[in-house]
Design brief:
Largest sheet: 3 strands, antiparallel
CATH class of the domain at 31-83 and 97-142: Alpha Beta
CATH architecture of the domain at 31-83 and 97-142: 2-Layer Sandwich
Order of helices and strands: HEEE
Strand order of the largest sheet: 1-2-3
Number of strands: 3
CATH topology of the domain at 31-83 and 97-142: Glycoprotein, Type 4 Pilin
Structural class: mainly alpha
Strand content: 5-15%
Number of helices: 1
Length: 146
Amino acid sequence: MKALSPGRSDGGWTFMETLIVIAIVLILTSSVGFMTAQYLDRARTAAARSQIDSFAVALESYYIDCGRYPTTEQGLGALWRKPELDGADNWSGPYLYKNIPLDPWGNPYEYRVPGEDGLPFGIRSLGADGREGGEKHDADIASWEN
């Protein structure tokens, strides 16, 4: 074993150096967390758009079989279970692989007949805040918008 020369430290890190390293690690970790949150918001928005598009395709299949779209009262649930009301005699669903999910923020999708701007139906997620309107990740995502 090599003896230490007089006046020389034992070669370990000082307390101050350790604090500096911990501070750098915390700064890097927080910046990664911030970037992850931004990508998560984008992913949720993309998932909502994708689900709305899937509902629209299923609604077109429902229309082909039944000759009309489900009513607002029947809602999107008519794509999963045969409606009790008249007009669904030729229903041959379910038209989706799974029951109607909540939007990526945990809120139900809104469905109405007729839709906006003369469209036959409208489907909308109210975004992260669950309220009409909003900007960025709080913005509504609707079938009648691009």
